[in-house]
Amino acid sequence: MRIKTLTIKAFGKFKDQTIDFKPGLNLVYGRNEAGKTTVQTFIQGMFFGFYKPYRKKKTYSEEYEKYMPWNQFDYSGSLVYEVDGREIRLERNFLRSKDSLFIYDNTTGKIINDQFKYDGVIRQHLPLGNQGMTAVIYNNTVNMRQTAHDNEAGSQDEVRDSYIEMQNSSGIEINFKGIARRLEEKKNAIGRSGQSKSRIGAAIRERDELRELLKEAEAAYAKVAENQEKITRNQMKMKRIEAENDFLSQESVVKRKKELLASYERINKLEKENNRLSKIIKEDQIYEGYNYKTLEGLKAISNQAERLSDQMDYIEKEMADASEHLKTIRQKEAAKRSSLAGHTLEGITEDYELFKKEETEVAEVDKKTNVVINIIATLVTLLGMGLVGLANMGMMGTSQGIENLSLTVGVTMAIVGVVGLSYGISATLKKRRILKEKQIIPIQEEILAKYQLKDGPSFDSYYKKVVRNQKELEQLQNEGELIIIQHSRHQAGYEVLFEQRRGIIRDLDRKLAEYQVKNIAEYAERCEKAQQLEELKIRFNGNLELLENLLETVNGGKTEDGQAVWHKASPKSEELLSLGKEIARLEGENSALTDGIGLPVEIKETIKTLDSQIQAFDTEISACNAALEIISTIQKDCHQDSAPELNKNIGDILDTLTQHYKGVKIDDAMKLKVIDPKGGDFRDVDQLSAGTMDQVHFAFRYGISELISHEMPFILDEPFVRYDKQRKTAALKLLAELSSTRQVILFTCDDVEENLLRSFGASYHKIVL
């Protein structure tokens, strides 16, 4: 597999930039902050997105925010890679609101998402899922970042499990980590007995509660049986008393019939009114359950949505104001740039400095003379005149020849001095005239004409104005950048409020649909109907109670004043009434005892079912634990079988790099130890120097990536910062050798790596950011 082309539409600092990679070794050069790490992260994002691993719902990582462009309206790109002779094109939009990934056959242009594994958490297909490559394995093997990778919990286990599955030699395809994950999920679904909300915990809690309820039910039904015997005895006694009183009641009833007619009329009237009320109550029964407490809750939800809407309106206004302010700033920036008439501060500064330089040279030429020539000529003239004077005064001795020689030399020196002084003055004047006429004045005039200025002072004023204008322009640019950041934050806040409001509106609509109303006003109307219904029920029940009293008076043989109709004829009526009351009391007590309590036989059957369910849960958890133990044993055995080969592979690489450490041991948790060649003791990697630690990790990644995925490109960002020259050369030779069978992408900020590659004749493709 090899990466062919990156097209970065908007990512970090990059916008509309294309980078082409070649097979073999690609050397990506860029100074600090040129975007090397950004390009490396873009490749990772195109393959995997920016999601935190080991989550049950889609959660974005910190890199999502870190590399989001200031202009959040675009955050996307594409990547073309070749695998098994087929070109695949990935197009991804990173924006949270537009999160998407499309996978194309780059030859036919057909969408082929369904040919790759699907992740239900992030709801996307995985471009490298068919190769068993996850983001965690990618960042722990083939992708070496500039700083040490801070692994999340479980990442080393995932690398270990992937490696062990690669070493499975049974001929049977076994997904160790998948099986273990499903077993753990199954155990978690069942839970533990101490967890009240787990399945097994809920079953145990329900069983224990039923056991207590069974005790209450058995005691209650024992009391019910006792009461029922008393009721039977009292009913038999009442039958005997009623038989004795039967023949005495007729005469008394006839005598008092007229007194009961009024009660019958009132009963008839109340029954008619209750029939009417019953019909109304039956029709309005649909309003039962509507209440003002629920209404207040619905209004509270609606008010919350309105408050969020107000906040969203405020943010929209802030965003609009920010956009308008930014527009004003851009207009001011354009005006500032247009005032320069197409010139730049750099060009104006260069011309200004040239103008001042020429102005200084003119001043220097005005002052400059052939000082040395003039001084020497003057001295020679004075010395010659001195010799002539001495010779004329006879102060040169008695010899006539010496006087003549002195006179001759003095005259000659005086003449030479005068000639030299004349030449110096003439040369100085000539040089001034030439510089003024042919060099200095035309250059200054050309500069002044370029900016349509009259003289030097006006150019000074113009330059100061340009510098001040540039400072104001930079201030406007900084202010614009702050507004863009503020606008981005408002946008993020608006999206959060939008999602919250949408959730509240959905909740409100769901509740309204549950209550079968269209809006809160309709629910309020039904609350009013429900209140009227309750008032009708109260009136109905009042009439019913009065009816029951009247019927008791009539059927019990009493008049309105409470006198018994057969009081004189039925001396045992009080005893009969007492027995009836006792029966009613016992029946009421039985009803209270059995209210809300199930039959003991049914409770026992439910407890038996729960015991079977709990036993099944325990058996299932024991089976899962046994399977996990078997898988752990298999993994350890596989590690024991394959560790020597991996240790030797990584040890050879580390020996090539360091020429010192040869022995390497890797435990079943993929933790590295090196053997001290002096004492033969094991040493943890974190006990080594920083540079050696880098080399151990490089050897580990080089070795493990070859075993887990020997086709994936090997990507490294400034891996040799803490290497000395000898170890850096050895590492580059390993990469050069690897690049003959596998694509290598090496990011660097200086030319040391390139010089070393050239020194031992390695071939590479250079990319400059």
TrEMBL record:
According to the entry, every stretch annotated as the Rad50/SbcC-type AAA domain falls at 6-228
Q: Which residues cross the membrane?
A: 371-393, 405-429
What the entry lists under Pfam families is as follows:
AAA_23 (PF13476)
Coiled-coil zones: 200-251, 298-325
Domain of life according to the entry: Bacteria
Keyword Transmembrane helix, does the record have it? yes
Q: Which UniProt keywords apply?
A: Coiled coil, Membrane, Transmembrane, Transmembrane helix
**What's the protein called, per UniProt?**
AAA family ATPase
What are the leading ranks of the lineage?
Bacteria, Bacillati, Bacillota, Clostridia, Eubacteriales
